Amino acid sequence: MNKKTMHPFAHGILSIWTLMVLFPLWTMIVNSFKYKYDIYRDPFGLPKAWNFQSYLSVLHDSDFVLFFKNSLFVTIGSILAVLIFGSLAAYALANWKTRASRWIYAFFIAGMMLPIKIGSIRLLQMIKALGLINTIYSLFPVYIAMGLPIAVFVLTEFIREIPFELTEAAVIDGAGRFRIFRSIIIHLLRPALATVAIFNLVPFWNDLWFPLIFINNDKHKTLLLGVTRLFGQYQTDWSKILAVLTLAAVPVVLLYLSMSKQFIKGLTAGAVKG
Predict the structure, then answer these.
(1) pTM for this one?
(2) Which family would the database say this protein is a member of (predicted)?
């Protein structure tokens, strides 16, 4: 198969994949503007009568804003902590070339292969011992532990690609390790940091498992945990649920659109050797 026939084939595959990804999103958004019974009559078509009451009810007659703030707080805080600790650890591991550093690096990589949920009981005991149970702060240690393996993996490989002559010149000029990191490395890491941030944003924002285990207090519930309150024992208002899920998807989409260029640079860093 030559290049001329390869391009239409690749575009066709990507177009099909795009439709598969966008179809659930389309269904969610369209049905959020329908009345409850119209969803069952025509789940995939445009609404015959647009229903904005679900959004108004979610924004004004529920704790959506509180849950949204909680999710935003814990997600942004956890991502910032992952980026700070991950970049410092990656900088150390990239420059510390001993057997111990290789074992520590392998320890972080192992965290990518082992799902953290298998330790839920032990984590619950640890969070309770720390006095964080039933608070939004109970999620920070778990999310940071979830995000550090991928952060260390991506950032370490990225730092190793930085020319040694660049940091050597800074050392000759009298710059210390931390100044080199702050003035040079952190600026070059922007594409990789964007990649790590987006990779961790989705599991942090969409996590239901750990909030469900750690938090019972309504004031500290996250957005997806708050959505479970809309499921009734005998009937469920799907219009409101889909409206909440549509609003919950907005931060993820906006962050990706704002950081897409950096994200793509981070993914393709080191892929092409000149």
Answers:
(1) 0.81
(2) Belongs to the binding-protein-dependent transport system permease family.
